[in-house]
Amino acid sequence: AGIIGPDMKEVSKALVPATWSSRFVNLNFWADPNSGVAYQVQVQIPQRLMTSLEDVGNLPVLQHKPKDPEKKLKDVSLRDISQITEGTAMGEYQRYNMQRLITVRSNLFGNDLAGAARQVHKAINELGAPPPGVSVAVRGQVVPMQDMQDGLRRGLALAVVAIFLLLTANFQSLKMSFIVVSTVPAVLAGVVLALWLTGTTLNIQSFMGAIMAVGVAVANAILLVTFAEQNRLGGADAVDAGMEGARSRLRPILMTSAAMIAGMMPMALSLGEAGGQAAPLGRAVVGGLAAATLATLFVLPSVFAVVQSRSHRRAASLDPSDPQSKHFAAHA
After folding, report:
1. CB atoms within 10 A of CB 176
2. What tens digit of pLDDT does each residue of 80-108 get?
3. Do 291 and 187 contact (CB within 8 A), yes or no?
4. For the chain, how many helices (H) and strands (E)?
5. Three-class DSSP category at 4
6. Which residues, 6 or more positions from 44, have their beta carbon under 8 angstroms from its beta carbon?
7. What is the DSSP string of 181-241?
8. Which of 47, 83, 80 lies closest to 61 in space, CA to CA?
9. 76: Cβ contacts below 8 Å, ≥ 6 apart
10. pTM (2 decimals)?
11. Roughly what angle, to the nearest 10 degrees, separates helices 184-198 and 204-233?
């Protein structure tokens, strides 16, 4: 090479079209004079023509001009100035925050993100402990999805706790609050059953639907329990009071639940444009409210009767102006 003349730059230029493409080192555009559209032009040897070391050695590096002008130009091939051997090397270096990394990718078509994340974690665990100085990190949309689901779980739990505390302050009784909140498991069971029957995943939309269903179910339960407790304080037995509460509040509860279910049914059926995105919310509300309505009308009176069977009929109020309070003082 020192005698003939090619330097390292010329050799690299000869290797680029054979092993890569000129588009990455010499960006070139050609403008069509008729249409004015610019087309990218690149030089690249087809991969089917570069299949062996012999093909690599035949790459022309430059044309050597002899001293005798009557002689033709002689092509200098890569084999004339180099020794070509097989070996392995990194094709690409990747870094994240200046830290070297290796990215592993796969095709997950037809699988949801949570299922793919479980498969990835399972594959990582099966590999065992990484070598010293090597760590494994899952990036992409998996981490935001897990953070979102954790936040929604905490939000749902905090919503139930907040409802329980507000009911305790309203009824001035922990047992009454427990009776009302006892409909929440029925809501969650209905949501899970509806999502399972429709093949819907647990996502942010279905979580929102579950929270909405919990709110409506608790409102119906408060309605029934309030009237049942009024009947019990009026002298009725706990069993009769629970049945009377369900009987007297049957129409309002059915109207509330039926209106909510009917309003969510088009969304649950994915009707309209982009209906599939909000379909999990509608399915969660429909399933949760359907189960909660049945539990409120048929199970909640029994829970009320069991919990309140031995409760006294004295009001918990300490207000001396409250006629129901044992501290009530009549004024002349």
Report:
1. 23
2. 888 888 888 887 888 888 888 877 777 77
3. yes
4. 12, 6
5. coil
6. 17, 20, 21, 22, 23
7. HTTHHHHHHHHHHHHHHHT----HHHHHHHHHHHHHHHHHHHHHHHHHHHHHHTT--HHHH
8. 80
9. 4, 6, 60, 61, 62, 63, 64
10. 0.59
11. 150
